[in-house]
């Protein structure tokens, strides 16, 4: 699919649904992508700012892209403003860049690399996001190793 361009008003979800700012995409647009609702995208706002993103189910058969308050501030937009945007499929199916520390770790640990690449793209992406939040390289290595080795275990239930 070629780039999809549109203009719309910036919306916001109800607070009970997260309160995110968003751009809505009709199902017909999403179904043109090779991976349909599982597509990773590059979204460009007002030809000024591009970012990698995924699709979220709107609940009515359509989808939306989350817009961070930081990205909106960068382009000088807010809730209710008109916004021109363009989306294209991200050529990187993972949708994020692989951190150098994780690449190096997996080159040194072939078993870890094998385990990592048996995970779904979503789990791989989640591990990357958790690892890049950590500043200390030794802690990044420990966290990445732990997450990959235990990725098959169910997440612990939150107590109410």
* End-to-end distance: 45 Å
Beta content comes to 25-35%
**What is the 3D shape?**
elongated
Order of H and E elements: EEEHEEEEHEHHHH
- Strands side by side in the biggest sheet: 1-8-4-5
Helix content range of the residues, please?
25-40%
| Record field, number of beta strands | 8
- Determine Rg (CA atoms, Å): 18 Å
**Count of alpha and pi helical runs:** 6
Going by helix content, strand content and strand pairing, the class is alpha+beta
Quaternary state of the chains: single chain
Give the biggest beta sheet.
4 strands, antiparallel
Mean pLDDT: 89
Uncertain ranges: none
Features:
single chain, 160 residues, alpha+beta, four-stranded antiparallel beta sheet, 8 strands, elongated
Task: Give a description of the structure.
The relative contact order is 0.15. The chain has 6 helices and 8 strands. Strand 6 and strand 7 (63-67) form a beta hairpin. Helix content is 33%, strand content 25%. It has helices at residues 27-30, 69-74, 100-108, 110-118, 121-132, 137-149, and strands at residues 4-9, 11-12, 21-25, 40-45, 49-54, 56-57, 63-67, 82-89. Helix 3 (100-108) packs across helix 4 (110-118) and helix 5 runs antiparallel to helix 6. A 4-stranded antiparallel β-sheet has the order 1-8-4-5, with no helix packed on it. A 4-stranded antiparallel β-sheet has the order 2-3-7-6. With 160 residues, the chain is an alpha+beta fold.
């Amino acid at each position: 699919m070629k780039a999809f361009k549109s203009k719309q008003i910036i919306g916001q979800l109800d607070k009970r649904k997260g309160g995110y700012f968003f751009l809505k995409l009709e199902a017909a647009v999403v179904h043109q992508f090779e991976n349909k609702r599982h597509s990773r995208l590059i979204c460009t706002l007002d030809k000024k700012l591009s970012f990698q993103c995924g699709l979220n189910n709107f609940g009515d058969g359509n989808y939306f892209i989350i817009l961070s308050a930081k990205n909106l501030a960068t382009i000088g937009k807010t809730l209710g403003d008109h916004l021109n945007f363009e989306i294209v499929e991200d050529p990187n199916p993972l949708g994020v860049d692989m951190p150098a520390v994780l690449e190096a770790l997996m080159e040194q640990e072939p078993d870890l690399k094998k385990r990592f690449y048996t995970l779904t793209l979503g789990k791989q992406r989640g591990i990357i996001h958790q690892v890049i939040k950590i500043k200390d390289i030794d802690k990044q290595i420990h966290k990445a190793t732990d997450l990959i080795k235990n990725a098959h275990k169910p997440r612990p239930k939150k107590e109410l």
